[in-house]
Amino acid sequence: MQDLTDLVAELERSQRQEDVDGFLALFDPSAVWVNGAGRRLIGLDEISEFTRGVLPGAMATGSVDYDVEHVAFITPDVALTGVRQQYTDLDGRPLAEDGAGSPTYVWIRTGSTWRIVAGQNTAVIAPG
């Protein structure tokens, strides 16, 4: 379980530092990723093209914090992490309602290496 928590921390670090290659290294080549706007990206090539276009400069006005809320093992080599995501301003203050998310990542383990095989980066919509 700690391995997965550490990988979510690496995901956070790579976003904060706009480390495109570090971010992409977390994905399985066959991964499916749904971004916060609901766009489905299939395969590492599509995920890479999208990420290279949006991650550089994304943290110019703020940052992001991740908190692993739960880990569920589907099999010993397939796991799900549920994350609370909070975007912040440059002073570390949480952004308004549009700054929160509830990403879910499905990881697969090959040998000793875990990679994201599916992810849903869902925005949290305020009630009302």
TrEMBL record:
DUF4440 domain location: 5-116
Record's protein name: DUF4440 domain-containing protein
Organism taxonomic ancestry: Bacteria, Bacillati, Actinomycetota, Actinomycetes, Micromonosporales
